[in-house]
């Protein structure tokens, strides 16, 4: 939800007079040029008496100033994310495969209220940036008047704290306050970016003391969570538990997760970022089905609301790799990977990042892409599983922005003169790679969206074929630009070992081959970093790689069958090198094959002495045995 509660409608804010409309500078200068959104903010600020810093910061917190043409999960439109509740309900219905139920929620219907306050049509508020921003300003000003607080372009921005909190759309005090705090942090730090549709907007940093006590005038609720919710203060979380239930007569007929005693055994080391490939309501139905599978949290797109399903001590079945499941917390994000920004909203990014920061502190998880990663980076457990692994959250998830919100920018810890390792950092908004078959029947169906990767070629030329991936195509045939084909994508934030350089081109070792990408000095798409890499031990022609770090056979006690340590189809030969992601990988196998936790030799973590390292093999990471490789400090 966005921009206020229903009481704002009754605030009695007068519609803009004809004289005020005639004096609106954007009426004559709004257009399709890059400065039009900036002018629209200035004009709406003057017309409705909202400090421009407040108006722009609220918009940034909702959409980062992008113009969404109807957010898929909530019917939210434009840079102010004005919500058409009827269309939002219809969108939810379509996601569930049900008939839409277009009954507007008056609290959520910010677009309808903005139409009442401004006299503008809903269609104009949906499609015109000037109208949309005027609508958002009108809502803020109406709330400020209702609360008996001063309006005016020159009023102290700190006096708008309650109106900003109300703009969160939440009736919960801590959630509304958290949104306001985020917004005021934008005012303090400033922001500047070119939006996805090419508009340049800048908000200079300014010193403002938010008057947090004014939020009491909203008379919001204090939230009391039921169940063992493990979320930070100020995050809109609820407990919607996944069932742990027996589904048949056998001891192994149960779902949809396993009981455990994490982080004692196994240790929690990772957080997996997923997307649901369905609506929020559909995801809740699935995670509530004992015959399906469970993950830890689901984040709603429209407002960043979070449902927790598992206690982190228990093991969800979400990663498609039992070893990763044992060590990971899984977070699903409402949306479809092939549609990208239509679903990956700013409230979603902010809520998810706040949750991940909290969990990372709680479980001592490093804030890097070797420990906080996408489902698409997880290897198959065996060679036979590789081709069927998932590819979410896909090419449109903004990893750079996400890690900025985590407080761990991917641009940090670079080393100007390092030679052996590079981190892929092409930017996001300006990095619009060709992607095809977002509709699996239509090649040209993805449109132009920012992407989070660079393509890798077999030679230093744009015309050279893309590198192949023998895990996806055993023949090693070239990868494609299809939205689901990760075989030639070097993803933002990942670190790789340099194989060669030629002019503006850099080659990295990638799934056993050289992959070339354009990396000009004047406009680099990768940055040099320090770290370590591995090479096969002297005398080994090649080193095997694995999808899991299981113990040696001698580590298994009587009654627990030893699990095969099965190499993947990838190897890397002498002369190749791969960046190290983690030198402290747990070596264990969590045995859980029966419903009852009291079953002998079950719900046991088998720990081995063999050692593994996590390496950056390709788009997906992998593991190598310490006995097979040497670790080398990168220059």
Describe the structure.
The protein has 635 residues and is an alpha+beta fold. It folds into two domains: 6-218; 237-633, 3-Layer(aba) Sandwich (Lysozyme-like), CATH 3.40.80.10. The protein is built from 14 helices and 30 strands. Strands 5-11-10-13-9-14 form a six-stranded mixed beta sheet, with helices on both faces. A five-stranded antiparallel beta sheet has the order 20-19-18-15-21, with no helix packed on it. Strands 29-28-25-22-30 form a five-stranded antiparallel beta sheet, with no helix packed on it. α13 (346-363) packs across α14 (399-405). The chain is globular. The two termini are 50 Å apart.
Helix/strand layout:
Layout: H1 18-23, H2 26-29, H3 36-48, H4 52-63, E1 76-77, E2 82-83, H5 85-96, H6 110-118, H7 122-127, H8 129-146, H9 161-166, H10 173-189, E3 191-194, E4 200-203, E5 237-239, E6 245-246, E7 254-255, E8 257-258, E9 270-275, H11 280-287, E10 297-299, E11 306-308, E12 315-316, H12 322-327, E13 328-333, H13 346-363, E14 372-374, H14 399-405, E15 421-424, E16 453-455, E17 489-491, E18 495-502, E19 505-510, E20 513-518, E21 526-529, E22 532-536, E23 542-546, E24 567-573, E25 578-582, E26 588-591, E27 604-607, E28 612-615, E29 622-625, E30 629-633
Parallel strand pairs: 5-11, 9-13, 9-14, 10-13
Antiparallel strand pairs: 1-2, 3-4, 6-7, 8-12, 10-11, 15-18, 15-21, 16-17, 18-19, 19-20, 22-25, 22-30, 23-24, 25-28, 26-27, 28-29
Essential attributes:
alpha+beta; 19% strand; 635 residues; five-stranded antiparallel β-sheet; 14 helices; Lysozyme-like; disordered N terminus
């Amino acid at each position: 939800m966005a921009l206020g509660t229903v009481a704002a409608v009754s605030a009695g804010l007068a519609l803009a007079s004809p004289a005020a409309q005639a004096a609106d500078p954007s009426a004559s200068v709004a257009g399709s040029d890059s400065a039009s959104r900036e002018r629209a903010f200035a004009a709406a600020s003057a017309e409705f008496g909202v400090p421009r810093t407040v108006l722009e910061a609220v918009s940034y917190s909702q959409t980062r100033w992008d113009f969404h043409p109807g957010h898929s999960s909530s019917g939210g439109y434009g840079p102010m994310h004005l919500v058409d509740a009827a269309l939002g309900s219809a969108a939810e219905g379509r996601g569930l495969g049900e008939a839409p139920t277009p009954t507007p929620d008056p609290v959520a219907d910010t677009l309808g209220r903005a139409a009442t306050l401004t006299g503008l049509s809903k269609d104009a508020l949906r499609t015109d940036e000037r109208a949309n921003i005027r609508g958002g300003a009108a809502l803020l000003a109406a709330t400020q008047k209702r609360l008996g607080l001063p309006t005016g372009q020159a009023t102290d921005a700190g006096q708008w704290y309650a109106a900003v909190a109300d703009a969160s759309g939440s009736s919960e005090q801590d959630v509304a306050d958290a949104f306001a705090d985020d917004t005021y942090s934008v005012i303090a730090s400033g922001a500047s970016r070119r939006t996805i549709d090419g508009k340049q907007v800048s908000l200079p940093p300014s010193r403002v003391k938010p008057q947090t006590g004014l939020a009491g005038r909203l008379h919001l609720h204090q939230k009391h969570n039921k169940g063992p919710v493990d979320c930070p203060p100020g995050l809109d979380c609820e407990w919607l538990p996944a069932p742990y239930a027996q589904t048949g007569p056998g001891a192994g007929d149960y779902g949809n997760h396993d009981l455990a005693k994490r982080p004692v055994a196994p240790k929690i080391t990772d957080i997996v970022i997923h997307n649901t490939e369905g609506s929020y309501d559909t995801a809740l139905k699935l995670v509530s089905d004992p015959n399906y599978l469970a993950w830890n949290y689901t984040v709603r797109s429209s407002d960043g609301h979070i449902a927790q399903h598992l206690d982190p001590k228990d093991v969800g079945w979400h990663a498609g790799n039992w070893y990763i499941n044992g060590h990971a917390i899984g977070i699903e994000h409402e949306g479809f990977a092939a549609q990208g920004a239509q679903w990956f909203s700013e409230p979603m990014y902010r809520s998810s990042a706040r949750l991940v920061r909290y969990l990372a502190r709680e479980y001592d998880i490093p804030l890097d892409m070797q420990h906080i990663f996408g489902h698409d980076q997880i290897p198959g457990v065996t060679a036979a599983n590789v081709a069927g692994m998932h590819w979410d959250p896909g090419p449109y998830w903004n990893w750079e922005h996400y890690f900025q919100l985590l407080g761990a920018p991917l641009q940090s810890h670079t080393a100007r003169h390092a030679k052996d390792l590079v981190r892929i950092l092409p930017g996001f908004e300006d990095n619009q790679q060709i992607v095809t078959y977002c509709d699996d029947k239509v090649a040209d169906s993805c449109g132009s969206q920012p992407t989070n990767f660079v393509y890798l070629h077999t030679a230093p030329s744009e015309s050279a074929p893309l590198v192949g991936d023998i895990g996806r195509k055993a023949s090693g045939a070239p990868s494609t630009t299809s939205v689901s084909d990760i075989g030639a994508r070097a993803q933002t934030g990942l670190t790789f070992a340099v194989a060669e350089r030629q002019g503006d081109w850099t080659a990295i070792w990638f799934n056993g081959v050289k992959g070339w990408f354009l990396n000009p000095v004047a406009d680099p798409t990768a940055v040099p970093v320090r770290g370590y890499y591995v090479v096969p031990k002297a005398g080994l022609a090649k080193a095997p790689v694995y999808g899991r770090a299981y113990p040696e056979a001698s580590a298994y006690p009587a009654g627990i069958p030893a699990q095969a340590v099965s190499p993947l189809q990838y190897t890397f030969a002498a002369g190749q090198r791969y960046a190290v992601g983690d030198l402290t990988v747990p070596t264990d196998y969590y045995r859980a094959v029966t419903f009852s936790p009291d079953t002998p030799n079950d719900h046991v973590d088998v720990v081995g002495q063999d050692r593994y390292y996590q390496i950056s093999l390709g788009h997906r990471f992998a593991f190598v045995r310490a006995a097979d490789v040497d670790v080398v400090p990168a220059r």
